[in-house]
Amino acid sequence: PMGPTVVCPGSHKNISAQEELFKLDMEARASEPALENFGSEVVCCSAGSSLLMDSRLLHGGGANLAAGEGGMRRRLLYCTWMLPGTAPAGSTYSIRPELK
Predict the structure, then answer these.
(1) Nearest CA to 40 among 17, 13, 14, 58?
(2) What is the percent of the chain with per-residue pLDDT over 90, rounded to a whole number?
(3) Cα–Cα distance list, 79 to 31, 33, 53, 55, 63 (Å)
(4) How would residue 91 be classed by pLDDT, with cut points 50, 70 and 90?
(5) Following DSSP, what letter does each residue of 43-97 receive, concatenated?
(6) Bridge-based pairing state of the strands 59-61 and 5-7
(7) Confidence check: pLDDT of 2 > 60
(8) How many beta carbons lie within 10 A of that of residue 71, not counting itself?
(9) Do the beta carbons of residue 69 and residue 1 sit within 8 Å?
(10) Can you tell me the distance from the alpha carbon of 60 to that of 57, in angstroms, rounded to the nearest whole number?
(11) Is the pLDDT of residue 62 over 80?
């Protein structure tokens, strides 16, 4: 009852793609033209599957149904690790500033 995850393959290695995305307002970031521009692909998995990815990969959730139509909350387990003294190129910020 909920939409699949959408990813933009290779975007975690393309800092200019991330910079381009941040120039768009929040609504435009998830628009069809933006998704096409960044080469989005739908990831369909069976219930109980997991998706392991670099946090810098441009990604998002597909459309959810309203609760009255069978929609439900998404569950997420978010883990991150790296060697001491290292930092990845590009943004790894996953929480929008207005939600902090």
Answers:
(1) 58
(2) 2
(3) 28, 30, 10, 9, 24
(4) low
(5) E---TT------TTS-EEE-PBPPGGGT--PPP--------TT---SS----S-G
(6) antiparallel
(7) no
(8) 14
(9) yes
(10) 10
(11) no
